[in-house]
Amino acid sequence: MKKRIAIFASGSGSNAQKLMEHFKRSTDIEIALVLTNNAEAYVLQRADNFEIPSHIFDKHEFYKTDDVIDLLRNLDIDFIVLAGFLWLIPKNLIAAYPGRIVNIHPAILPKFGGKGMYGDHVHNAVIAAGEPEGGITIHYVDENYDEGEYIYQAKYKIDKNDNLEMVKFKGQQLEHLHYPRVIEGIVKKIKK
Ligand code: GAR
């Protein structure tokens, strides 16, 4: 039986795309579901292209019911990957998947993390601070934004003339390179 991953994403889903590509031919791991809080998210199109089912939920469903957990359990999901998902994960979901939820953040945590620090906000803050390096952090998810145990970090150089697009591009290249293989390493080790 393959181990089954659910991806939570709120936007474009370029990381989700890399994961879908990476595991498409895997014999032991599959992306089985994509979930989003945003009915307009391009990640839904990407899921469709890979014939992966998706589910859209609202705040009430996510924070006031167990419906998302029931869905994950009904679909036999073993592991959760956040890929540009912007809402805080509620306690009941963390309790249902202990040590089985990971996130990627576009900075070297603990710097440039926390509520409101996502996507371009992070890159702009890194540039404004005049940092010589940017990076990514892959970490376990707990009840606070960007605070779970770190799994993997990687860095890139920021040149003086780098603008938002350039910094974002460098960060994305690292994310796309490392997220699928780091997840594969973790999921291989968990019990079905
Ligand atoms: C990624 O850069 C990810 O690190 C970031 O959102 C982007 C999603 O891009 N996540 C956060 O900022 C979480 N705090 P994508 O939709 O193209 O994968």
Structure explained in plain terms:
Strand 1, helix 1 (14-23) and strand 2 form a beta-alpha-beta unit. The chain has a 7-stranded mixed beta sheet with strand order 3-2-1-4-5-6-7, covered by helices on one side. Helices cover 38% and strands 22% of the residues. The protein has one domain (3-189): Formyl transferase, N-terminal domain (Rossmann fold). By secondary structure, the chain is α/β, with parallel strands linked by helices. The chain is built from 7 helices and 7 strands, in the order βαβαβααβαβαββα. The model has no long low-confidence stretch (mean pLDDT 97). Bound molecules: glycinamide ribonucleotide (GAR). Glycinamide ribonucleotide (GAR) binds next to helix 1 and strand 5. Residues 3-183 form the Formyl transferase N-terminal domain. This is Phosphoribosylglycinamide formyltransferase. Keywords: Purine biosynthesis, Transferase. The record marks 146 as: Raises pKa of active site His. It comes from Pedobacter rhodius.
